[in-house]
Amino acid sequence: MSGGAGYETLLVEERDDRVVVTLNRPRARNAINAAMVEELHAVCAGLERRPRLLLLTGAEGVFAAGADIQELLERGREEALAGINSRLFDRVARLPMPTVAAVDGYALGGGAELAYACDVRLAGESAVFGNPEPGLGILAAAGACWRLAELAGVSVAKQVLLGGRRLDAAEALRLGLVAEVVPDGELLGRAHRLLDRMARSAPGALRLTKLVLDARGPHPLADDLAQAILFESEEKRDRMRAFLDKGASS
Ligand code: COA
């Protein structure tokens, strides 16, 4: 149950059905530095070993103000080719169980890309999404150039990435980028309720649904194979019998 042990840049709360991760470098507006990347990889490793839901948020009213610009300044071609952030965010996107980003305040640059890599985003009223990378002489190379287009459409992605448009919470909601906007003070509670709802589903069914949803192109064979696994599961039989028995007894 405890949080934070052994982490320098994150607060981590482990529960039976979920892990709650708070990006926690508030003095740098939770900018994602190498230590945070390493620690998020450690969290991913734990979630791959023992799949659970992930709730990701930021400390002190900010999600994350991007990759750490101090470190970016020193990075060269080799670091870019190593895909320091893109590989982490891909790993987050491929986590076995659903992930929810609870975003209040700034989610800029790499912070926005990390939120884009999650399965569902909830916004506090103060949330602002943006990708100001070209202003710093670089591009948003950790997923924004394709994930944002998938989530909100190419037109919106071009407005954000080329036009420097920032999306506030209401705009993000209208564009479907976030599922819901709630007052900042209610954001975590609302996110936990969403995870509670997810946790009531069969974990194996959630896991396979996520895998199939994320498969590219039409994939009826993958759907059938995933269903074949689930149809044979004890959990499916128990859940369906419980539903039918309840009907019979009412
Ligand atoms: N990397 C490194 N440090 C960062 C940072 C980042 N991405 N974002 C903020 N910080 C640091 C600032 O340098 C400042 O440090 P200091 O106190 O030692 O001077 C501290 O966090 C607070 O930032 P400040 O700009 O004073 O806070 P603010 O609340 O006025 O503004 C932001 C918040 C997010 C609007 C502003 O910090 C910002 O524009 N950050 C950069 C966003 C960006 O370009 N991200 C893309 C990176 S690729």
UniProtKB/TrEMBL annotation:
Pfam families: ECH_1 (PF00378). Coiled coil: none annotated. InterPro entries: ClpP/crotonase-like_dom_sf (IPR029045), Enoyl-CoA_hydra/iso (IPR001753). GO terms for biological process: fatty acid beta-oxidation. GO terms for molecular function: catalytic activity. PANTHER family: ENOYL-COA HYDRATASE, MITOCHONDRIAL, ENOYL-COA HYDRATASE-RELATED. This is Enoyl-CoA hydratase/carnithine racemase. It comes from Nonomuraea pusilla.
